[in-house]
Amino acid sequence: MMTLEEYRLLMEPDVRCAVEANRGRNPLEVALDKHLPHAALVATQVKYLARAAAKLPSYAAAGCILPPLAFEQASSEACAAHKQIGGGRLLELTCGLGVDTLYLSRRFERVVTLERSEVLAAVARENFRRLGVGNVEVVTASAEEYLARCTEHFDWLYADPDRRSADGRKQLRLEASSPDVLALLPRLREVADRLCFKLSPLFDVDEALRLFTPCSVEAVSLGDECKELVVRIDGAPPQLAATALGRGAFALPVGEREELPPAEPFEAERYRWLVQPDVALQKCRLARRALAGVADLWSENGYGFAVEEPRGVLGRVFAIERIEPFDPRGLRRELRGRGAELLKHDFPLSGEELARRLGVRRGGGPRLAFTRIEGRFWTIRLK
User: Fold this and answer.
1) Residues 6+ positions from 125 with CB-CB distance below 8 Å
2) DSSP track, 302-360
3) pLDDT for 59-79, tens place per residue?
């Protein structure tokens, strides 16, 4: 965690100039440069500003201060920009580096954001100044402290609870997060008309629906990775949504997510196309619903199989060369020592274990997918 002294040093003109002058250099070279003031601190900022170019491009462009731990825990700007809430006044319980705050400030007239760390609060204020944000008030206080004395009413309340324990371990249970939004829920409903929470991508969708009913839940993915689960309590008809940023979305009223009838018995020779549903669909257990009439699925965690080439689906599509029963010995004889691209869904072996058993190197060579359907294991050779 950045110290107050380190923050003060980064505000010094000579250190700020050193950071800007050395952007683009190898951070290790910067750290060893004896001509630089506070070279190690400058090197850390150079390192994280380079990393921010992809994850936080606005922060990189503005030359913001980036505490390493806060950077690692921050949302990407792509996810932050997707938050579909807005109005007059917003109370945010968890500022952190302020990436969500930055984009929410563009949707609200006024934002009050809380940060219990004096250092992070100071960093957020300075970064908002550099980013040209003028409608955000950063309050140094915990959520519990602020809510105990709050007399103002807000249109929306937003929170992304800290999911790390005191020793840095990730926590999944909401009760172990800070603030505990479940314990505070009655008070939060008094302070704001509508509530929005960002939960861990590992959090169970059905558990979120149960804990916060009535609510809407959205799984958000970016680059084939589920990034966050967003819960909205806003009086709108509850819905379940899967959003793949830059690719599309699929939503369904919560009450319509009943189980589909089982697919017909699997006939390997029928299918010419394989669909890998987006992880957001699988997170919400909506893959079969989203692909109904386009591809057959036997499991929400499995692949979809299609006779005709699917178009406009939320997922990746591959042409099938052939499908055959999984034969590890035969594949090992064929592939041992070669490279191969291995894909898997609803398959009991990890990618590493699969590669070890087949004797292959990951990457290059033939592309193979592995899955389980109706209790049998299959190998799908892809073109």
Assistant:
1) 138
2) S-EEESSPP-S-SEEEEEEEEEEE--HHHHHHHHTTSEEEEEEES-SS-HHHHHHHHT-
3) 999 999 999 999 999 989 999
Percent of the chain with pLDDT strictly greater than 90:
91
Average pLDDT, the chain: 94
- State yes or no: pLDDT of 169 exceeds 70: no
Rounded CA separation 199/177 (Å): 10
Residue at 82: amino acid letter: H
**177-210 burial code (b ≥16 CB/10 A, e <16):** bbbebeebeeebeebbebbbbbbbbebebeebbe
The per-residue pLDDT for 261 is 80
Does this model's pTM top 0.85? My answer is yes
Q: Which residues contact 261 (CB under 8 A, 6 or more apart)?
A: none
Task: State the DSSP code for 177.
Answer: S
Peptide bond into 325 cis (omega under 30): no
Question: What's the full length of the chain, in residues?
Answer: 383
Instruction: Using the CB atoms, write b or e for 8-46: b if 16+ within 10 Å.
Output: ebbeeeebbebbeebeeeebeebbeeeebebbebbbbbb
CA distance 212 to 187: 14
CA 108/CA 135 separation, integer angstroms: 8
Task: Kindly report, residue by residue over 116-131, the tens digit of the pLDDT.
Answer: 999 999 999 999 999 9
Residue 170 tokens read as 């990730």
CB 252, CB 306: distance < 8 Å: no
Neighbours of 47 (CB within 10 A): 19
pLDDT given at position 321? 97
340: alpha, beta or left, given left = phi > 0 and alpha = psi -120 to 50? beta
**150 vs 86, 144, 145, 154, 162, CA distance in Å?**
21, 10, 9, 10, 21
pLDDT in tens, 194-242: 999 999 999 999 999 999 999 999 999 999 999 999 999 999 999 999 9
Which residues neighbour 370 within 8 Å (Cβ) at sequence distance 6 or greater?
326, 342, 343, 344, 347, 349, 354, 377, 378, 379, 380
